[in-house]
Prior knowledge:
Elements: H1 3-14, H2 18-28, H3 35-52, H4 58-80, H5 97-119, H6 123-133, H7 139-146, H8 150-170
Amino acid sequence: MSxxxxxxxxxxxxxxxxxxxxxxxxxxxxEGVEVDDVVQETFFRVMKIQNAATIHNARSLLFSIARxxxxxxxxxxxxxxxxxxxxxxxxxDFPSDADAFIEQLEVSDEVELxxxxxxxxxxxCRIIFLLRNYHHLPHKEIAKRLNVSVKTxxxxxxxxxxxxxxxxxxxxxxxx
Length: 176
């Protein structure tokens, strides 16, 4: 895609959502975080993803990214209040509320990103991927329901996993 095509895509698919995005951010950002900064970061990340993959629903991706950035700011806000224990203070063997909160946010971030990755899959692949991984149907049952071969189901699942992994890597999520 040429730079002009990218700019045109941005103006048609992303820019019309700016007003709604700003309204959402005004109500959800923690104190001290500028809406303009988050909008700019969101646009940057959308364009970064757009360079690596085709985006079918720019609005959905835009708001998912903005939510993740907001959670990052909340995470920083809560973790900055945690001070290290001094030698004379009692230590505890269980995670603090802030640690549990951060862990919960990380899981929800991953879920949102995975949803975005799944929405990028071709329709047939997405349906098979969801039937297998979220409805836990066996390959034979999926093949029977969709009137395709078991081999097609296996192939589409492999494609789905590869595309989701690539999407997550493109947005900076890496797993061992």
